[in-house]
Every structure is written in structure tokens, then in C-alpha cells.
Design brief:
The complex is a heterodimer of chains A (113) and B (110).
Chain A (H helix, E strand, L loop, with lengths): L2 E4 L4 E4 L4 E3 L1 E4 L5 E7 L5 E7 L5 E4 L2 E4 L9 E3 L8 E8 L7 E3 L3 E6 L1
Chain B lengths: L3 E4 L2 E4 L5 E7 L5 E8 L3 E8 L6 E2 L6 E5 L5 E5 L8 E8 L4 E3 L3 E5 L1
Parallel strand pairs in B: 2-11
Antiparallel strand pairs in B: 1-3, 3-8, 4-5, 4-9, 5-6, 7-8, 9-10, 9-11
The chains are: A mainly beta (113), B mainly beta (110).
């Protein structure tokens, strides 16, 4: 079946550090891949997405590339800010799943000044 | 544009009480979802509705019922609340692949 595995947290970084959060997936066919972000006390919101192999999604300085050969969609940012402190979720959507989103468990990021 | 609106934001129930969580979206989306979020367990799908008039069980449906009242509204009912249902509940809607979430309902069952 379809599944998403993302690195466990919490991740603690200093401001301006480089961020990588790993995400790998298992899916039949060609899923769409997403990163969502949840700020404290809020619902999830879409951060970026990619719908086919080699696509790069980007937003707010974050990037992720859809790698079919390694079934990965790692989230990166070159220089994090305190305001990036949040929980990050990787997810996929595949036709065989009635298009329901399959979620990773989330990775908590804390950025210290 | 309100997006997805959930009510209430907070609720405390006694064991055995019932309540309904309300959700409405104004984006004309076909699909709507109810999730619960618990520490260390990510998001778990309770029920979903692919279109008006249809509902299906997700991963953790026991103890819950849903109603897709119309295209806009999708409610979640706890008939007899249990402490294990203490959680944060999120409603979401989608038209294609991207999902839009409400702000959540923090429910405590004592």
C-alpha cells in the first residue's frame, strides 16, 4: 500500500542554519507529493507540492524535488528563521487511494535565535 | 474568503456526553475529511466524504459518526465521549489533490 516515512524530530537549529527534513514514500503509479506546515495553535497549510518526477516545489525559501528513482521528497531551506519553527508534514496523493492524502507523522522544528 | 470553518475551537466533555463538531467550507469542494491529531501519531483519518451524499470510514472511525449535510457542511458526532477521544480534531476539504484545513477543535474528555 501507499505510505510516507519522514525523519523523526524534534529538530533544533540555530537561526541561519541549513535545514533538511527527509521524506520517502511508497506508492503505486505516479503520486503527487506535498509538504504541509503547521504553526503553533493552527491548522495545516500547504507549503509546496510537486506533481511529477523531477518537479521542484518551492515557497518561502523552502524547496523539495520529486525524486522517483529514490522515492524521496526531502524538504530543504538554506537559512532558517525563528519564524520557521513549526511542525512539517510530508504527504502523498495517489489515484489508487481514492485521492486521499497519506501522511507522514510530522517533524517538529525549533529554531533558536 | 473564509475557507474551512470549524466550531467550536475548544470543548470539554464529561465521559458519556455527546457532541457534534461542525465544519463548513465555502470553496465548492467535493471532498471533505475529518482527522484527529495526537502527539507522536500524526494525522489519522476518521471519516471522509468524496461527494455530497456519500461518506466512508477512514483509519479510526470507531466511536464517531458523520453527516454530509450538503456540499458545504460535514459534521462529526461523538455519541458517547470517552477519554481516548481527547484530541485535536481537524476538518479539511479538497477539490483535487491539495487539502485546505480548518483551525482545529481541541477536545478534552474527562
Amino acid at each position: 500500500g501507499n505510505s510516507v516515512t519522514q525523519m523523526e524530530g524534534p529538530v533544533t537549529l540555530s537561526e541561519e542554519a541549513f535545514l533538511t527534513i527527509n521524506c520517502t514514500y511508497t506508492a503505486t503509479g505516479y503520486p503527487s507529493l506535498f509538504w504541509y506546515v503547521q504553526y503553533p495553535g493552527e491548522g495545516l497549510q500547504l507549503l509546496l507540492k510537486a506533481t511529477k518526477a523531477d518537479d521542484k516545489g518551492s515557497n518561502k525559501g523552502f524547496e523539495a524535488t520529486y525524486r522517483k528513482e529514490t522515492t524521496s521528497f526531502h524538504l530543504e531551506k538554506g537559512s532558517v528563521q525563528v519564524s520557521d519553527s513549526a511542525v512539517y508534514f510530508c504527504a502523498l496523493s495517489a489515484w489508487g487511494n481514492n485521492r486521499k492524502l497519506i501522511w507522514g507523522l510530522g517533524t517538529s522544528l525549533a529554531v533558536n535565535p | 474568503n473564509a475557507g474551512v470553518t470549524q466550531t467550536p475551537k475548544f470543548q470539554v466533555l464529561k465521559t458519556g456526553q455527546s457532541m457534534t463538531l461542525q465544519c463548513a467550507q465555502d470553496m465548492n469542494h467535493n471532498s471533505m475529511y475529518w482527522y484527529r491529531q495526537d502527539p507522536g501519531m500524526g494525522l489519522r483519518l476518521i471519516y471522509y466524504s468524496a461527494s455530497e451524499g456519500t461518506t466512508d470510514k477512514g483509519e479510526v472511525p470507531n466511536g464517531y459518526n458523520v453527516s454530509r449535510l450538503n456540499k458545504r457542511e460535514f459534521s462529526l458526532r461523538l455519541e458517547s465521549a470517552a477519554p481516548s477521544q481527547t484530541s485535536v480534531y481537524f476538518c479539511a476539504s479538497s477539490a483535487n489533490t491539495e487539502a485546505f484545513f480548518g483551525q482545529g477543535t481541541r477536545l478534552t474528555v474527562v
